[in-house]
Amino acid sequence: MTWDWSAVSDFMPQFWDGLLVTLQALALGSLISFVLGLVWALLMRAPSRFVRWPVGVVTEFVRNTPLLVQLFFLFYVLPEWGVTLSALTTGVIGIGLHYSTYTMQVYRAGIEAVPAGQWEAATALNLPRIRTWQVVILPQAIRRVVPALGNYVISMLKDTPMLMVITVLEMLGEARLFAQEHFQFTEPLTVIGVAFIVISYLASLLLRSLERRLVR
Amino acid sequence: MSADTPLMKEPDAHTNPPVDGSELIRFEDVTKRFGSNTVLDRLNFSVDSGKHVTLIGPSGSGKTTILRMLMTLTKPDEGTVSVDGEKLFPAPEKQLREVRKKIGMVFQQFNLFPNMSVLRNITEAPVTVLGMSKDEAEARARELLDLVGLADKAGARPTQLSGGQQQRVAIARALAMRPRVLLLDEVTSALDPELVAGVLDVLRDIARTTDITMLCVTHEMGFARDISDQVLMFDAGRIIESGPPEKMFSEPEQDRTREFLSAVL
């Protein structure tokens, strides 16, 4: 096996394209998982079990089936029902939905960790329930869960190569394409491997500084 | 401490009607059980408007439960609780909200909102619940902070304050809602001994200069003697003796009361 620097430089244009797609998928997927996870967590605290029960079943189902199967389903079955989305959009929704079923657990733990005394003080001050969530409970809960949410961002990053199977040309997709065209596997795969490490490392730095700011 | 700051400048529409000494709080045959433990046992008592009533007795004798019921934080299993003639349980949320407007509570653990500044802790409810303007609420919050001796802490976070300071902010926060009744649940129990006096001084001021009805659960007997019109001695979920502080602390009738007082004094 020989290392060919010219293959690395040849791969670069495709690599940048792939990197951009990976980052897009990661950013949008994270955003969806953060928002949707919070929605699930709040719905699970609804007073009516006719809300909690279906939400519980759906999220349990999504959490316990493979992301890969969900991606195939969204990509090949939805169009049969008349819903046609681009590959990247499908991928972002798939990954965001899948991870929202994990982030909901994180939010739940964060909400439960807010001391009962905070709810009681809000009641004693006669704050309306929605306002209590907005200004008392969620700000404290979310502050607590940032580290755990951050870990899921890094997991999500490592799951983005799955989008390749639904034709999204993220980093792995571009690497495979390059490899097949040039019969050079080592260089493109090494490059994207390094890129994954660098992105996770930068993300964890970002997270740590965010944590420090929130803990104050 | 600015003891002579008038706390209530003028009675305003939705809060302080003139005190007429009429009955404000009534417990009728109230029973509360936690599992097999009966914390309140067919309890009856009432409190007239403007009175300061202290609840004493051993831990677990149901004193805190009474305050929590009035604040609608816990429900009785049997019996009725009414405030200003309105029954609390069962009552629709809308009616509970009306009743809560009349009542403020200070907790043993302060329960300030750690994500807000001291000022915002005090202004949040007046603005959202009473519909006060932000400026008015802030001006009033600063007056109250001055009253509790923390005028310079408006911008601080609760976590930057000592326990005694946090509790004084909590008192200011409760007063900002202009309650007719102030419930004080062992407000000095979580404090370091040297911080207790500052908090009690603030409460003495409030007791002396306002017409707020106070229900106070405390183990500070000197304080109870100073501020109370009436002392209720609890044991095993019942009031076993009650009377003015002079009588209760000097010549209690019940052995159990004497025993309890000699243990805590």
General description of the model:
The complex is a heterodimer of chains A (216) and B (265). Chain A is mostly helical. Chain A has helices at residues 5-43, 49-63, 67-77, 87-112, 116-124, 129-159, 171-182, 186-215. Chain B has helices spanning 63-70, 93-101, 118-128, 134-147, 163-175, 193-209, 221-227, 245-250, 255-264, and strands at 23-34, 37-48, 52-56, 78-83, 86-87, 103-106, 181-185, 213-217, 230-235, 238-243. Chain B has a domain at 114-161 and 168-178. Chain B is an alpha/beta fold and 265 residues long. The relative contact order of chain B is 0.18. Chain A binds chain B through residues 115, 117-118, 120-121, 123-128, 131, 135-136, 139-140, 143, and chain B through 71-73, 97, 100-101, 103-105, 107, 109, 111-116, 124-125, 128-129, 173-174, 177. Chain A: One of its GO terms (molecular function) is transmembrane transporter activity.
Name the structural class of chain A: mainly alpha
- Rounded to the nearest angstrom, the distance between the terminal CA atoms of chain A is 52 Å
CATH class group of the domain at 19-169 in chain A:
Mainly Alpha
The number of E-state strands of chain A comes to 0
GO cellular component, one term (chain B): plasma membrane
Main location (chain B): membrane
Membrane topology (chain B): Peripheral membrane protein
Region (Disordered) (chain B): 1-21
